[in-house]
């Protein structure tokens, strides 16, 4: 069983760009957005992924992700519910953790959030200076609702 334990923050400045060791372009859509589970299709540069996530219980949820052929992922994106998400993802190493900073494009232009996966709930970690308000568990910031 795969568990995802993740915290999400609003980003307050663009200093993460100077700290990033990688940037990728992501397109993602949802085949299912039920609160009990989501099924997501994603392309990351030239790779494809299918992800199933369970319902959030605080900062924890089940997550299963599988690589699929890129061409299949592109075709599956056409089957998704309306609202394809497009974003640039910057990866930043900070204090032993990798932060994923997403700059949204299109109708979500101007929204930038940072996520960090932690080894267990209650894990104590330092936040980089580019993050602000903690929005973990706030449904308006779930990718499936964007």
Helical percent range? under 10%
Rg of Cα set: 15 Å
The major β-sheet equals: 8 strands, antiparallel, barrel
Q: Are there runs of 5+ residues with pLDDT below 50, and where?
A: none
CATH superfamily: Hypothetical Protein Pfu-838710-001
Number of structural units classed as domains: 1
* Number of discrete helical segments: 2
General form? globular
Distance between the termini: 27 Å
Strand runs, count? 9
**CATH domain topology:** Hypothetical Protein Pfu-838710-001
Give, in spatial order, the strands making up the sheet with the most strands. 1-5-4-3-2-6-7-8
> What is the helix/strand order?
EHEEEEHEEEE
Task: Specify the CATH architecture.
Answer: Beta Barrel
Strand portion: over 45%
CATH class: Mainly Beta
Mean pLDDT: 93
- The assigned structural class equals mainly beta
């Amino acid at each position: 069983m795969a568990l995802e334990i993740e915290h999400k923050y609003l980003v307050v400045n663009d200093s993460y760009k100077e700290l990033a060791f990688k940037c990728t372009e992501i397109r993602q859509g949802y085949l299912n957005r039920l609160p009990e589970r989501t099924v997501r299709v994603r392309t990351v540069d030239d790779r494809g992924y299918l992800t199933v996530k369970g319902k959030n219980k605080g900062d924890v949820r089940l997550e299963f992700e599988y690589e699929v052929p890129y061409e299949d992922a592109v075709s599956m994106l056409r089957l998704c519910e309306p609202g394809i998400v497009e974003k640039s993802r910057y990866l930043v190493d900070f204090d032993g953790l990798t932060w994923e900073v997403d700059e949204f494009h299109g109708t979500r232009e101007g929204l930038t959030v940072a996520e960090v996966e932690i080894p267990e709930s209650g894990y104590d970690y330092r936040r980089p200076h580019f993050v602000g308000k903690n929005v973990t568990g706030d449904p308006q910031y779930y990718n499936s609702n964007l």
